Amino acid sequence: MSLADPLFAASNQIRYTTYLGRKYVYMRDVAAYYGMKYFIWQKTCGIYNKYSKIIFHYESREGSVNGFTVHFLYAPVFQNNEAFISEKDFLLFIDPILRNRAIPSHKMKTIMLDPGHGAHDKGGTGSIYQEKNLNLQIALKVRDILTSKGYLVYMTRNRDVFLSLEQRIAEAKKCRADIFISIHANIAGKSAINGIETFCVTPPGAPSTNDAKPVYKRERGNYFDVNNARLSYEIHKAAVSRTKSYDRGLKRARFYVIRNAPCPAVLLETGFLSNPKEERALGRQSYQSTLANAIAEGIINYHSALRNR
Ligand SMILES: [Zn+2]
Q1: How far apart are CA 275 and CA 188, in angstroms?
Q2: In this predicted structure, what is the pLDDT of residue 133?
Q3: Which position among 28, 58, 86, 183 has the lowest Cβ density within 10 Å, counted as fewest Cβ atoms?
Q4: Distance 185 CA to ligand 1 centre (A)
C-alpha cells in the first residue's frame, strides 16, 4: 500500500481486530474517518450523518444503506460494547459508496446490455409470459434511453436467439464494454415471493449471500470488486425506488456472467414471474419503461460518481 493509495489514509486511522481469522475494523473508527456519527443500540449498530446511513444487525448479514437492503459479506461482531465490521465490507463496499474517490476511474462510453436467455432457453416461465421475452423488451428500452444520452450501447442479443454464457462474455470483450448489465426475471416455488434483487460478484475469500462458505478463488470479475459495489448499489437503489417494488436486497453471487465479465458487471432480477401481480406488471409497457429508466438512471449515477471523484 502506498501513500498515493486512497486506502492508506483509512489504514492509518482505523484500528482493526482479528476474529475467527478475519480482519474486522472498529465501527467507531470508520464513523470518525468519514466524519459520521456512530451508534450501537441493542442488536443494531450503524454510522450516519445528514446524507448517509448504514445499518448492521447482530448475527445477520442483512443490513441497509440509505434505506436500501444490502446483504453484507459478514455479520458485524459485538464485543465489550464495541461493534466491528469486516474489513472486506468496509473496503470493498462501504468505502466506494460513501466516497467517490475510492472508486477506480475508467472509461464510461460503451455499455453492454445482456438480456438473459433466448430461443429454446426460455428462462423462467410464468402463467402468461416467458422470461426471455421480458428481459429483451426491457433491455431494448434501456438501450434506447442510453443511446439518447450519448452512450454507445451494445446488446448480447437484440432478438430471440440462443447465446451461451461464454458467448455473452465474448461479446462484451469484443465490444470492449466499459460495463456489463445482465437483465433477468425471477421464479420461486411460492407465489407470494416478489420483489427486486440485484447481484454483483462475491469478492474472493467471502461467502455468497445464499451460502455460508467462503470461496477463495479470484475471478476475472473480482478485478472490479470496488466498481461492482457502487454500480450495483446505484442500479438497485434506482430500481427499487422507481418501481416501489419489494426490496429483496443487493446480494452477492458467483453467477457466470458477473464472475467472468471483463469490466464492472451487475445482474438485475427485475421481479418474479411466479407472482401473478408482478408477472402482470412486468408485461406492461409502462412498468417496463419504469424499470428501463431506473436501470439507465443507476448507470448515469454511477458515471457521475466516477466523474466527481
Ligand atoms: Zn434468468
Answers
A1: 8
A2: 98
A3: 58
A4: 5
